[in-house]
Design brief:
Number of strands: 15
Largest sheet: 7 strands, mixed
CATH class of the largest domain: Alpha Beta
CATH topology of the largest domain: Rossmann fold
Strand content: 15-25%
Helix content: 40-55%
Bound molecules: pyridoxal-5'-phosphate
Radius of gyration: 20 Å
Length: 441
């Protein structure tokens, strides 16, 4: 059972949650002055339209025609499936639906914001976009967006992934992007980390620092971020806006579940539904799933922190493990981040979204069950959502509750088979972090 919308049903506007939040968002702070960030400084880092969207109080922002056209080209609207085989295998009275973002050309939701960001940069006359990538999903998406819109793309890729995921690098090269392992010797901050350890595995936070330093040295370049920021989460709401129409062919969901790294795919599916809850028109439950190795939602502190490890970005008020926290090398590379989207942090504080965390072995076990029943091999990131769904459906079995679960399958895992091999051969480590030094100091 599935719903597929025609091209004309690609949403015409993104939903911006800022005017509907239960409290105003704390402003980003300039790391040099600790005062609210001057927009001029942000304009040197991000394309103009994105800075505008980042602070916009407009509830809906029109999607440019060209971006809608490209959304159709890369596979939007994505299909929404009912996981009947999984339901049967679990013996649950719950009905399980999922939005499948793995059906886009680059295999995850990341392309939804990559196309928008590349479009606005091109409109402004920017020549190059510079970014970081952890697992390679974001780098692949931005590389394709650059190829489709005629922009150069440069990617700093965490060295551990650069080695473990050579095929992602090949994808980016095929789309014409430059890819450097991070930390690299191309930036000051990269050289600093290399001096500490010439074989430094890198991480998202370090790669962000390198990308920003790179951009500050090139007037015609701008930085592009694949998660966390308000405008990124807003671009992802095409997922939830489509899902609402698709679910209308079936039934209303009771529970909405997604995995969380920075929060963009979760927000993309959930925020159009959150809006109804904030307006008192519905009472959906929202569950956000993260890894135990990077537990910013369940064990982080709500405070101002940097978005990167080098301390270059504005400080944002969010749930964080501290920007110096080194996230252990779990296979869900896209979830290896110390912080969290500020808007999602607010929704957690107000108990609108409930966070939970899992170890990677139990997550891979749920992914294996999903592959054997529904056929799709999920990205290890998305598999966190699946584990959340399985547990919820088993609770429903105990209580006999016929609830309707909707989750986001943010990407496929066909380029993550190393992780699956390690799982099948019993080589996974379940990291249980004990200390978060930056939070204790
Ligand atoms: C990047 C990524 C994530 C995590 O990022 P969010 O911004 O939290 O969505 C999750 N799933 C996949 C497939 C990804 O590529």
């Amino acid at each position: 059972m599935k719903a597929v919308l025609p091209d004309e049903k690609i949403p015409r506007r993104w939903y911006n949650i800022l005017p509907d939040l239960p409290e105003p968002l704390a402003p980003p702070l300039d790391p040099e002055t600790n005062e609210p960030m001057e927009p001029e400084k942000l304009l040197r880092i991000f394309a103009r339209e994105l800075v505008k969207q980042e602070m916009s109080r407009k509830r809906y922002v029109e999607i440019p025609g060209k971006v809608r056209e490209l959304y159709a080209k890369i596979g939007r609207p994505t299909p929404l499936f009912r996981a009947t085989n999984l339901e049967r295998a679990l013996g649950t009275p719950a009905r399980i639906y999922f939005k499948y973002e793995g059906a886009t050309i680059t295999g995850s939701h990341k392309i939804n914001t990559a196309l928008a960001q590349a479009y606005y940069a091109k409109e402004q006359g920017i020549e190059r976009l510079v970014t970081e990538t952890g697992a390679g999903q974001w780098g692949s998406a931005l590389s394709l967006a650059g190829a489709l819109l005629g922009l150069k793309v440069r990617v700093y890729m965490a060295r551990a992934s650069y080695r473990q995921k050579p095929y992602r690098k090949t994808v980016m090269h095929l789309y014409g992007a430059e890819v450097y392992p991070s930390p690299s010797d191309r930036t000051k901050v990269g050289r600093k980390f290399l001096k500490e350890d010439p074989d430094h595995p890198g991480g998202l936070g370090i790669a962000i620092s390198e990308a920003i330093e790179d951009v500050l040295g090139d007037e015609k370049a701008r930085y592009s971020l694949g998660s966390v920021l308000n405008h990124v989460l807003m671009h992802q709401t095409v997922i939830g806006l489509e899902a609402k129409e698709e679910m209308a062919e079936f039934e209303e969901p009771d529970v909405i579940i997604g995995c969380v790294g920075g929060g963009s795919n979760f927000a993309g599916l959930a925020y159009p539904f959150v809006r109804e809850v904030l307006e008192g028109k519905a009472d959906y439950e929202f569950i956000a799933v993260e890894p135990r190795a990077a537990p910013s939602m369940t064990r982080g502190v709500y405070t101002y922190d940097f978005g990167d490890s080098g301390g270059y970005t504005p400080k944002m008020k969010m749930h964080t493990l501290g920007h110096t926290y080194y996230v252990p090398p779990i296979h869900a590379g896209g979830l290896r981040y110390h912080g969290l989207a500020p808007t999602l942090s607010v929704l957690i504080n107000h108990n609108i979204v409930r966070p939970i965390s899992y170890h990677q072995t139990e997550v891979f076990r749920a992914a294996e069950l999903f592959a054997r029943t529904e056929g799709i091999i999920p990205a290890p990131e998305s598999a966190h959502a699946i584990k959340g769904v399985v547990d919820r459906a088993l609770e429903a079995k105990k209580s006999g509750k016929e609830e309707v679960i909707l989750f986001n399958l943010s990407g496929h895992g066909l380029l993550d088979l190393k992780g699956y091999e390690d799982y099948l051969e019993g080589r996974l480590t379940d990291y249980e972090p004990e200390h978060f030094p930056a939070l204790e100091g």
